[in-house]
């Protein structure tokens, strides 16, 4: 017997037998751990901070929208949002959907990532949920294709998707996407403090502006607390967790965060009052309308007027 084998046997004889036994979890073929929900939760919460970093990165670039006064951007984007809500023309809605893409490209924003964040989220869900409403059960019109032929299953006229129904579903999805596109574009190209400062200078109620500022900061404070809770639980957990344990932990975590946010809000408000807070938000940014802002407003107003006129032409 070799010296190496003798050494191994002597080591094994000094180790308790229960340490050498393989547990059932180790003997099983590795599979997706039920702890993966913790990793996913931490990842999704971390995306909140990632989005803020992306916004700060783009907002600091000296490009087209970044150099425009925030008040001008708020007014123009709000104008396009209102226009998309009132127009019923699909061609106009598609043009309105293309405008933020052009502005995003000129402002240094990657179109692929920007398009995924907008059109593959809420507008897609709205379109999918609107498809059942595009059938002849809800919207009558010219049949495009039949799901159930006339006379089958007791349906005299059958079940079909009508042209009016499909256009209605597309209209809802486009309106949602246009509003999200302009709103997200404003957040990407403007710092949050400048947005709220612009709203305050436009005589928006100060209570509303203060609530927006506090809510924005609370999102990151609570997200950081949630990440710490998930990391602490992950580091203290070994093996697999059952679905019931996962639900129990998530329920306790949500309740803890709710209580923590309640107590923290009172402490923060007392600290603000001790530092002289009077209810009026203070901004260090000084806004001044320049020639480039006037040109930006004039060009977009002209575009909006052309689209309004084109509502009856296309």
Structure at a glance:
By secondary structure, the chain is mainly alpha-helical.
Descriptors for this entry?
mainly alpha, two-stranded antiparallel ribbon, 314 residues, 2 strands, 13 helices, flat
- Put simply, the count of helices is 13
| Overall radius of gyration | 29 Å
Structural domain tally: 1
Strand order of the largest sheet: 1-2
Distance between the termini: 93 Å
Q: What would you call the shape?
A: flat
Task: Please tell me about this protein's structure.
- There is one protein chain.
- With 314 residues, the protein is mostly helical.
- It has one domain (34-236, 250-310).
- Helices cover 69% and strands 3% of the residues.
- It has 13 helices and two strands.
- Strands 1-2 form a two-stranded antiparallel ribbon.
- Helix 10 packs antiparallel against helix 11 (206-236).
- The longest helix has 32 residues, at 243-274.
- The radius of gyration is 29 Å and the shape is flat.
Task: Detail the topology: elements first, then pairings.
Elements: H1 3-14, H2 17-20, H3 24-27, H4 36-59, H5 70-86, H6 90-106, H7 111-119, H8 122-130, E1 143-148, E2 159-162, H9 163-189, H10 192-201, H11 206-236, H12 243-274, H13 291-310
Antiparallel strand pairs: 1-2
């Amino acid at each position: 017997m070799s010296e190496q084998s003798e050494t191994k046997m002597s080591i094994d004889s000094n180790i308790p037998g229960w340490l050498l036994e393989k547990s059932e979890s180790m003997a099983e073929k590795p599979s997706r751990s039920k702890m993966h929900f913790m990793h996913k939760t931490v990842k999704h919460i971390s995306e909140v901070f990632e989005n803020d970093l992306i916004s700060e990165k783009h907002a600091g670039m000296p490009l087209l929208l970044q150099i425009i006064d925030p008040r001008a951007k708020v007014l123009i984007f709000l104008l396009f949002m209102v226009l998309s809500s009132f127009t019923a023309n699909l061609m106009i809605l598609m043009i309105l959907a293309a405008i933020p893409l052009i502005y995003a490209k000129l402002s240094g924003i990657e179109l692929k990532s920007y398009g995924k964040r907008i059109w593959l989220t809420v507008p897609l869900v709205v379109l999918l949920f609107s498809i059942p409403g595009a059938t002849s059960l809800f919207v009558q019109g010219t049949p495009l294709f039949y799901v159930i032929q006339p006379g089958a299953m007791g349906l005299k006229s059958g079940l079909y998707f009508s042209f009016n129904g499909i256009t209605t579903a597309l209209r809802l999805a486009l309106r949602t996407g246009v509003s999200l596109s302009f709103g997200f574009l404003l957040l990407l190209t403007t710092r949050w403090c400048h947005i709220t400062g612009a709203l305050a200078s436009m005589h928006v109620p100060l209570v509303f502006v203060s609530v927006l500022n506090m809510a924005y900061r609370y999102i990151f404070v609570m997200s950081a607390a949630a990440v710490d809770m998930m990391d602490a639980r992950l580091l203290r957990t070994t093996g697999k967790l059952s679905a019931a344990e996962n639900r129990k932990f998530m329920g306790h975590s949500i309740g803890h965060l709710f209580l923590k946010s309640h107590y923290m809000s009172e402490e923060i408000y007392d600290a603000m009052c001790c530092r002289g807070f009077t209810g009026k938000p203070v901004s260090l940014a000084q806004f001044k309308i320049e020639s480039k802002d006037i040109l930006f407003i004039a060009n977009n107003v002209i575009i909006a007027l052309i689209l309004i006129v084109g509502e009856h032409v296309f």
